[in-house]
Amino acid sequence: MSRRLGGPVVEAERVEKWFGPRKILDGVDLTVRGGETVVLIGSSGSGKTTLLRCIDHLETIQGGRITVNGQMIGYRERDGKLVEDRPVNIARQRREIGMVFQRFNLFAHMNALENVVLAPIRVRREPREATVRRARALLARVGLADKETAMPATLSGGQQQRVAIARALAMQPAVMLFDEPTSALDPEMVGEVLAVMRDLAEDGMTMIVVTHEMGFARQVADRVVVMDGGRIVESGPPDQVFGAPQHAKTQALLRAVLH
Fold this sequence. Notes:
With 259 residues, this protein is α/β, with parallel strands linked by helices. Helices cover 36% and strands 27% of the residues. It starts with 7 loop residues before the first strand and ends with a helix.
């Protein structure tokens, strides 16, 4: 897709992440600009999900730094070294980031509308009346205007994931992170979630998406980033990455998933 992009929103610089003796992220550099949709692809264990979780500070990092809108996420500098920030500051930083997981993680005892309004009211202390109006507009945006009183257990997987997207959008984040948002869905429900994500991209939402849906990546991404062994091995427009992949790991990955 061709869009006019803004300045950097997410910047990851030389990010390193270890799980015990295993190096999961090995000096990752990634810049995502305002309005850009970046799709991360790679084999299982390549570091894609871990990178998303580090951006949202659901995982700590052992090297490098991550900023969102110029604000360092999770850390502050002290005596020339990075130290983990106070929880209250981290919570404030994370308001800039919307995260949609494989599993929907809706509150089972709350209806769809209540799930969407909870964080803006509790975390941002926004007035209830205005928040409810915005939540209703967001549910309509994801095609669920008629489901605001529905409990999660009565919704299909695709509908629950769309509520989860509306819930993340309700915090008015600077960037949306999607971690394989369709992988837990039945095949017939995948399209309805991808359609919402496609609309968000067309509206200029800054998005980083981990997915195995190569058709979505080809059609919607401004840039496809290929990861292997905790490193970015290739990055470029979809036509370039899918049509003329340069790296042997990219070529092997695409042979495996497209044939």
